[in-house]
Structures are given as C-alpha cells and as structure tokens.
C-alpha cells in the first residue's frame, strides 16, 4: 500500500525546527508494509492544507498528517479538515473530562481554548492521545483515508505505537516487508557497484537494492515485499551468500550496526581490551567507544598524541624515527600503537597519524594522508590511506578505518 505524509507548520518551513516526525513515521509504516512515496511540508493555512490533501488523495489511498492541532488560533488543521470532510464539530464529553482533569492537576482553570480541544469531528474515528489534549482524527471518503495527528513528536509516536500501527495493519492487510542491511568498509560507492555488477544484474525482481554511502562506509540495503515471509527470507539468504563470496571480510556487519559496536562485541567475546593513540583523529575514536554504555569493560584509555613531544615522551616513539620519517609515517604510527598498548596496559591498541587538513599537505603527503596501525601482543599491522580534502570527513574516515583494521586483526588471529 502507498501512503503520503504531510507535515504542517510554518516553523518547519522557516527552518526553526527540523521535521523528524516524517523519518520516524516512514520507518514504522514501512515495517508493516506501507510504503511512503512522498513527504510534503506545508504552511499553516487553509488553502495549503486543502490543496495538499486533495493532491495527495489523487495519488494514494492513505495520508498521514501531523501538526496544527493545538489550542491556539493558528492551529487550524482540525477545523479545516472537518469542513473539508463535512463533519460537524461536537463536544466529546469523555475528552472534555480528561482535559479538565489534566488541567486540574496543574491548578489551571478551563478556558475557551481548552474547551475547543474537546470538540471532535462527528463521523471521524477518534483515537485517544494519552500524552496530550489533541486526539488523533481519522477521516474517510471513497476508500481514501486522511489521519491527522499532533505534531509534538512524543505524542505522535505514542499514538502510532499504541493504537494506529495496529489498526492500519489490520485495516489494510499489508504484505510482509523484509529489509536486509549489509555494512561494507573500505570501498567507495562506485568501486563497490562495479564489484557487484554481475551479482546485481542477477538479483530476483522482488529485490530492490540501494547503495547508502557515508564517510568510510557503504550500507547495502536489500528490500523485499511479498505475501510469503519464509520465501522472502530464503531469497535474502541466497543473495547474502553471493555477497559474502564477492566481498569477504570487507563486510563488517549484517545489520545497521556501527563499526565501533562490532569492535565492542569482538572485544567482549574475546575478553580483550583496547587502547588508543590518536593524532589526526584527535580523540574521535575514544568518543565513539565511550558513547556506548559499558565501554569500560573493554576500553582501557587513550592518548591524544597531537605533538611530537607527546608521541616521544608519553608513547615512547623514537625521536630519530620522527626526524627521519616524519610523524605521518609507518614507522612512527607502529611505534605509537605498541607504545600505547604498553603504557596503558591493553591487549590491543590502535594508532592514527595523518594530515586532516585543510593545510599541512605536501606533494609527498597530501591532505588526507593517514597512517593507521593496530598492535597486539605479538603483531603489528599498518596501512596507509589517502582520504579527502575535507578535515571533518578525514577524521571520520580515519576513525572508521582504524576500527576496521583492528577488526581484521582480531578475526585473523
């Protein structure tokens, strides 16, 4: 089934707030077999609301709207939709009592604006809002359905989770939807597409493939829709087997799992610990690890060795190596990794040293050049990368690459 989402509010259009509702709603709807094919943001005017509803109804059978249901004069969605669907606004005594009770808890008296909230469109289905005073309204005409919800995110989410998703799934007998994400590290989107050209050409017609790139990572997403869930799962397993053959250890996860979570799981499973020696990544890798609850079980500590003095005095990097090869070199980054492991007392260590930019590059070592090393008790491996010209992107990509290098070391031990 196809649906559209309409978000109402001048605050969205002027950039005062970001529309997070649509992304969340789309994901939840997709999970029950309802595909969102258009998202529209409109102003708080009767003309915009009516026009957008009419246009959406000409394309799809289900429209979900958020916003404009508050108690103030600029909240006109309820009145506009009630007029459009020829529904008289009548007082809902049960809702009136709930509003009165809610206000009494805060020692606030009922006023005209609050009484307005208790008016509901006669003939529409009213779905309760357990966290606010504006209920959800479900209008229907000629097998077209328009559902209006509050724009406050936690109110909208509660309505959908407790009431609406179940009702939609039951009402429209939606098909099964299956998504399979494959996380790939160390390949650009175009290179990955070239590697998968033959595999992609032979995909079953039921499989829709998407490439979703981000710095250092490409997410491959297979989406399937059908009536037989077991058949869909069998198709996915067959295609995953082909991907594993082609990509091998370039695949680091089969869900939307971040690389740092993969590292956390590997370290927990092996009961090992890691330390960091960060130069060009400037503590970003430590932040990625400590942002996860429970990281103290496997993360021992970090040294942000930005200067050569810290590299030498704290990590024990040989001054001669720094002078001969420079800070951005295989020799130095390997000593940083072994030095961090020894100084902090960890089983593994990751070290980064590079030129994040935008300045500092040379012909031999342009901006984006990064050396990364990982060390264990008896092995050190290192690799040179050349990323981009943009500083923030280089930091993110180097962080991803560092964790991925450690992943390979652990898996191959």
TrEMBL record:
Pfam families: CinA, CinA_KH, MoCF_biosynth. It comes from the Bacteria. Residues 4-171 form the MoaB/Mog domain. CDD domains: cinA. Belongs to the CinA family. HAMAP family: CinA_B. This is CinA-like protein. It comes from Ancylomarina salipaludis.
């Amino acid at each position: 089934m196809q649906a559209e989402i309409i978000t109402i509010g001048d605050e969205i259009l002027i950039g005062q707030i970001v529309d997070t509702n649509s992304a969340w709603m789309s994901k939840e709807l997709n999970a029950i077999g309802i595909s969102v094919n258009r998202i529209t943001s409109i102003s708080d005017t009767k003309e915009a609301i009516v026009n957008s509803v009419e246009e959406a109804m000409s394309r799809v059978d289900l429209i979900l709207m958020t916003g404009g249901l508050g108690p103030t004069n600029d909240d006109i969605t309820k009145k506009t939709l009630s007029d459009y669907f020829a529904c008289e606004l009548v007082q809902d005594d049960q809702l009136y009592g709930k509003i009165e009770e809610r206000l009494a808890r805060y020692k606030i008296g009922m006023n005209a604006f609050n009484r307005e909230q208790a008016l509901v469109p006669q003939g529409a289905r009213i779905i309760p809002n357990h966290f606010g005073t504006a209920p959800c309204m479900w209008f229907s005409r000629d097998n077209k359905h328009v559902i209006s919800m509050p724009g406050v995110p936690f109110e909208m989410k509660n309505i959908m989770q407790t009431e609406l998703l179940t009702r939609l799934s039951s009402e429209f007998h939606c098909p099964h939807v299956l998504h399979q994400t494959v996380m790939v590290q160390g390949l650009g989107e175009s290179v990955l597409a070239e590697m998968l050209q033959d595999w992609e050409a032979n995909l079953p017609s039921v499989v829709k493939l998407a490439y979703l790139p981000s710095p250092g990572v490409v997410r491959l997403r297979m989406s399937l829709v059908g009536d037989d869930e077991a058949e869909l799962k069998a198709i996915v397993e067959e295609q995953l087997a082909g991907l594993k053959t082609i990509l091998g250890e370039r695949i680091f996860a089969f869900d939307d799992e971040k690389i740092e979570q993969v590292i956390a799981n590997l370290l927990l499973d092996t009961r090992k610990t890691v330390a960091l020696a960060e130069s060009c990544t400037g503590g970003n890798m430590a932040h990625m690890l400590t942002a996860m609850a429970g990281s103290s079980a496997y993360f021992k500590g970090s040294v942000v060795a930005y200067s050569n003095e810290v590299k030498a005095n704290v990590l024990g990097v040989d001054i001669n190596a720094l002078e001969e090869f420079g800070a951005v070199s295989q020799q130095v980054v390997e000593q940083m990794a072994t030095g961090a492991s020894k100084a902090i007392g960890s089983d593994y260590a990751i070290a980064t040293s590079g030129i994040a930019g935008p300045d500092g590059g040379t012909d031999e070592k342009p901006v984006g050049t990064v050396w990364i090393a990982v060390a264990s008790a008896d092995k050190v491996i290192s690799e040179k990368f050349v990323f981009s010209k943009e500083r923030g992107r280089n930091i993110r990509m180097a962080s991803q690459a560092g964790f991925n290098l450690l992943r390979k070391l652990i898996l191959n031990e």
